[in-house]
Write a structure and sequence with these properties.
Structural class: alpha+beta
Largest sheet: 9 strands, mixed
Distance between the termini: 38 Å
Radius of gyration: 22 Å
Helix content: 10-25%
Strand order of the largest sheet: 2-1-10-11-5-7-6-16-17
Strand content: 15-25%
Number of strands: 17
Number of helices: 11
Shape: globular
Bound molecules: ligand 0WD, calcium ion
Length: 464
């Protein structure tokens, strides 16, 4: 990460970022699934917003959020990149590349349109981290029987001798998701795209990257770096590990590693390998294994195709269809007081909500850990009802702010990244307390769309 970035900014300085977002795109959210779900209505709408459905024009607050900030791009402490200085573009004089502010008050408008996510596909990663275009790693929700709600789980069991950890130093980027896209390219192209794009979506990314974007207005600890390339009409977004995150990963204490293990172990106690099976907590925990759902949805004017790892399905639950059938499993330190619960709602539930709301996962089941590594209580959170838990707390986060910010961020990406070239990478950086800024890179070290993918998708290009 020593290369010097190119001068930033699109061809000409934008007059207003609001060009990228139409006022109509911030209308009240709408729920019903579109005809692309075959008209099948089940499980209700993608609700979960911060209040009643409204159709109102963009508020002054959210409009202000779309205006470019006059501030120059700030150095992101998480990266070794030099920021582009206004003076680097000689013709532009004192023009500075636009930045995107993140203050919650700027995004406090009505909940934006978010289409109910539809599952487009599934894939699995096996114990050796090999990709399979099927659901072989899907597991089944198998909680302890209601008559015996006190689970006898020992979350520490097996940490020393039955734990196979994924090699996290190997950066995978979008690799497995791109494998899925490439394998489904005929279908993706056939889905009809007015622009004739080989992949019919404005954005392709991991769900986890969008989770980070959603929670940005309320995040005070960890920044992020997202690399973006425009290729054949689709923006690909792939996270780059910040220096701070890398340091944290490499220096993770044994205690933190054990805590992470306890989260995976909880999954083993709560899931079975077959629909009618029982959990086998004696097995090895192998974090190479994953089951991912690929969903398609729309946020305002942006169509999204993203994949997320999900823990299990509950085909007998109230929402048998994917992706609503999926259940997210979480562990958390036991809560002893109303103050602790309030803090949990403010700081932890926002991440849980964002992660599950994005792909339309309907339920989160939490195991509250006691100091001895047992689970003191289980609690279910319905994703769509989480806003009810927090709306009484005035200082709490708001789902609409998260979604409006995400919409503004995606509009910002569209506005900035306009050159269709998989070798050109814009690096968007954010650190708490600063606006989102970006730098441009053409060197191989930043390129993240693999050559095999570019070739595969290019080959399928329709003759002009
Ligand atoms: O290569 C990388 N640096 C990363 C790879 C960073 C982040 C994720 N991934 C991989 C994951 O292993 C998985 O294959 O991407 C896929 C998941 O993407 P996602 O669903 O978009 O990620 P996210 O929502 O952040 O995490 C979902 C689950 C986690 O569940 P919890 O309950 O912990 O949020 O994916 C797992 C984890 O179970 N997961 C990981 N497992 C091992 N190592 C990691 C990781 N670094 N990140 C997520
Ligand atoms: Ca989980």
């Amino acid at each position: 990460m020593t290369s010097r970035p190119e001068p930033t900014g699109p061809g000409s300085p934008p007059t207003s970022l609001s060009d990228g977002v139409r006022v109509g795109a911030l209308r009240g959210w709408e729920g019903p699934a579109r005809a692309d779900r075959g008209g099948a209505e089940s499980g209700g709408e993608q609700r979960g917003g911060g209040g009643a459905a409204r159709r109102s024009p963009m508020t002054e607050g959210s409009k202000a959020a779309m205006e470019p900030s006059a501030r120059p791009a700030k150095r992101s402490s998480g990266t070794a990149e030099a920021p582009a200085e206004p003076g680097e573009s000689p013709k532009r004089g004192r023009w500075a590349p636009p930045t995107l502010p993140t203050e919650p008050s700027l995004y406090d408008g009505p909940f934006p349109f978010y289409r109910r996510p539809a599952e487009e596909g599934r894939f699995s990663l096996d114990a050796q981290r090999r990709y399979h275009p099927d659901a072989r790693q899907l597991r089944y929700f198998a909680p302890p029987p209601a008559e015996h709600p006190d689970p006898a789980f020992d979350l520490r069991h097996g940490y020393r001798d039955r734990y196979v950890r994924r090699d996290e130093s190997r950066r995978e980027g979008l690799e497995h998701l791109l494998q899925w896209v490439a394998g489904n390219r005929d279908r993706l192209r056939a889905q009809g795209d007015a622009a004739g794009r080989p992949v019919n979506a404005d954005f392709v990314t991991w769900r986890g990257h969008l989770t980070k974007v959603l929670t940005t207005p309320y995040e005070s600890q960890e920044g992020w770096l997202l690399a973006v390339s425009l290729f054949r009409g689709t923006l690909y977004v792939s996270e780059v590990e910040t220096a701070a995150a890398r340091q944290q990963r490499e220096q993770r204490s044994d205690m933190l590693q054990e805590l992470a293990y306890m989260g995976y172990k909880f999954e083993r106690y709560m899931c079975a390998d077959t629909p009618d099976g029982s959990p086998d907590p004696t097995g090895v925990v192998n974090t190479n294994e994953a089951f991912c759902t690929v969903v398609r949805t729309r946020l305002g004017s942006h169509s999204l195709l993203f994949a997320g790892e999900v823990d299990c399905t509950d085909p007998r639950g109230a929402w048998p269809e994917a992706p609503a059938c999926y259940v997210e499993l979480k562990t958390c330190k036991e809560l002893h007081s109303p103050a602790q619960r309030k803090s949990f709602y403010r700081h932890k539930l926002i991440k849980w909500w964002a992660q599950s709301f994005l792909p339309g996962v309907s339920r989160i089941v939490a195991g509250f850990r006691a100091p001895d590594g047992s689970v003191a209580a289980l609690e279910t959170f319905e994703t769509m009802k989480i806003f009810q838990l927090i709306r009484g707390d005035r200082g709490c986060w708001k789902p609409a702010v998260c979604m409006n910010f995400c919409e503004a961020f995606l509009a910002f990406l569209k506005r900035v990244v306009t050159e269709d070239d998989p070798q050109l990478v814009h690096l968007f950086a954010w650190e708490p307390g600063s606006p989102v800024s970006y730098t441009r890179h053409r060197d191989a070290e930043h390129v993240f769309l693999p050559a095999w993918y570019v070739e595969t998708i290019s080959r399928g290009k329709r003759p002009d």
